[in-house]
Amino acid sequence: MFRAFFFLMCLLIACPARAEEPSPPATAAPPAPAAAPVTNVEIPLNPMMELNNRKKQDIYDIRRMYAEKYPQFMGSNYKPSDDVFGQIEDDRPWWGILGRSYYGAGENSIQGPAEASRFIANPLLLVGLDTGHAVVVQKAGLKPRPVYPEPLHLYWQADGALAMAEYDITTFKKDSADIGDGVCVSGHMMLVAYNARDLGYNFLYVDPAKSKYFAAKPHIVKIAQFLHKGDSCGYAGGCNNVAPVQPELNIVVTGLPATAYIKLWKAQPNSFSDPADMVFVLKMI
Known about the structure:
The protein is an alpha+beta fold. The protein has helices at residues 2-12, 56-67, 71-74, 82-85, 97-103, 117-120, 169-178, 182-185, 194-198; strands at residues 40-42, 128-130, 150-157, 162-168, 188-192, 203-206, 214-215, 221-222, 226-230, 239-243, 250-253, 258-265, 278-284.
């Protein structure tokens, strides 16, 4: 696991070269064969999309369309989880990314691509970052624009045991300061993990020993997130969005570059030290 993690991290940061070792004496036994290199797959990240007034079946079709590109990770007979997506309502608007980062709750909360489409259109982004709240921008001269933690890269190890997403938090914190979002400037965010739940990973734990500048709850968390029609957007009749509020998924990025080493399990483990069914790493620069 360490070899895989080290290789993934070296994709994005310069790793020190190994010092040359002295040649063995002529009588030494021949060196053991080198270990096979770890093979990784870069998963292109899909853009957000408009979902207002779409049918629930459309969302299921979108999920299947992207899942079919990676049957080695999503399975050959992928079906979206009804526990996660089954409460989406037809013909309803969605919290928009501009509603979340400019207008706030109310009539204009549905402006822009659906904020949830960041995860709907990227089913292999099993665990991601979000602000967890909406901002009303009152600073004169600022035009509506999306401000959110943006993933830059997503890699999966070929055997599916480990994956890593890289986030641009430096730019996000600067943009958050511009719109007056002091909460995110201070590093407070939340984990979004309903994609993990969709693939059957129901429990997560952020391992502090393998994380850096990343503060999370020091216990195993059962992922309860799903999508439904709620009232938080303040739009008449409600909007489709993520629920419930799960404080145990709140996190703080205390410095950069930061790393979160997240262990995922399908069934509840006996202890946080149990081997993970899969590891998902967040790298924040």
